[in-house]
């Protein structure tokens, strides 16, 4: 049923019926069940973000993105193969890209930076795990790289008069943050 509601939500979204799309995506996320529930919930939440954003509800869109990113991590953790994890996370990059875009639109610059860093951290972790496994054999498990760095941590680490420029590219935009000790 979640899959059907997601499909109907996509149709309503594409036809500009945003409140109907929001309702359908909410129902899809809530009704996801079975062994693929987390997967269906992830994509329902991604659709919910898009519908809320199209309806002008930026706080609701941000909340849906945060839930979608958490769901993506839950789904990813279930994969045993690093190759599948890396492939799955490549597909989920659109969720991170959308989160960055909606946070920038909401003028939550530091939050957007932190989501971008989180996606970059995950990509680096997947890359490192793959290289360690290739060199050492399939029995090696790489430790997690850790949490993504916050804008506040970067600011406090910068010397006075120094700036860090960080980029996040999507299919249609490039976002840049200029971080200095006194702000972003």
Write the SSE topology.
Blueprint: H1 2-14, H2 18-31, H3 37-54, H4 58-78, H5 82-105, H6 109-136, H7 151-157, E1 163-169, E2 174-180
Antiparallel strand pairs: 1-2
Helix pairs in contact: 1-2, 1-3, 2-3, 3-4, 4-5, 5-6
Helical amount among residues, as a percent range?
Answer: 55-70%
Biggest beta-sheet profile: 2 strands, antiparallel
Termini separation comes to 44 Å
Unreliable stretches covering 5 or more consecutive residues:
138-145
How would you describe the shape? globular
Number of strands: 2
- What would you report as the Rg, rounded to the nearest angstrom? 18 Å
CATH topology of the domain at 1-78: Serine Threonine Protein Phosphatase 5, Tetratricopeptide repeat
Query: What is the name of the CATH class of the domain at 1-78?
Result: Mainly Alpha
Helix segment tally: 7
Quick structural gist:
Helices cover about 70% and strands about 10% of the residues.
3D structure, described in words:
This protein is mainly α. The protein has a domain at 1-78: Alpha Horseshoe (Serine Threonine Protein Phosphatase 5, Tetratricopeptide repeat), CATH 1.25.40. It has seven helices and two strands. A two-stranded antiparallel ribbon has the order 1-2. α2 (18-31) runs antiparallel to α3 (37-54), α3 (37-54) packs antiparallel against α4 and α5 (82-105) packs antiparallel against α6.
């Amino acid at each position: 049923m979640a899959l059907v509601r997601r499909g109907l939500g996509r149709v309503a979204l594409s036809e500009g019926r945003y409140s109907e799309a929001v309702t359908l995506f909410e129902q899809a996320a809530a009704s996801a069940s079975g062994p693929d529930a987390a997967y269906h919930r992830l994509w329902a939440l991604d659709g919910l973000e898009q519908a809320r954003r199209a309806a002008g509800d930026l706080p609701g869109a941000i909340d849906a993105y945060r839930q979608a990113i958490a769901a993506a991590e839950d789904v990813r953790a279930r994969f045993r193969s690093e190759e599948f994890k890396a492939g799955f996370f490549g597909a989920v990059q659109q969720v991170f890209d959308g989160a960055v875009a909606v946070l920038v639109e909401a003028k939550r610059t530091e939050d957007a930076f932190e989501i971008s860093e989180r996606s970059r951290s995950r990509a680096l972790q997947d890359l490192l795990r793959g290289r360690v496994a290739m060199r050492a054999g399939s029995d090696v498990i790489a430790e997690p790289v850790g949490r993504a760095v916050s804008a506040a941590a970067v600011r406090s680490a910068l010397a006075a008069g120094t700036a860090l420029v960080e980029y996040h590219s999507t299919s249609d935009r490039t976002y840049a943050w200029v971080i200095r000790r006194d702000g972003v």
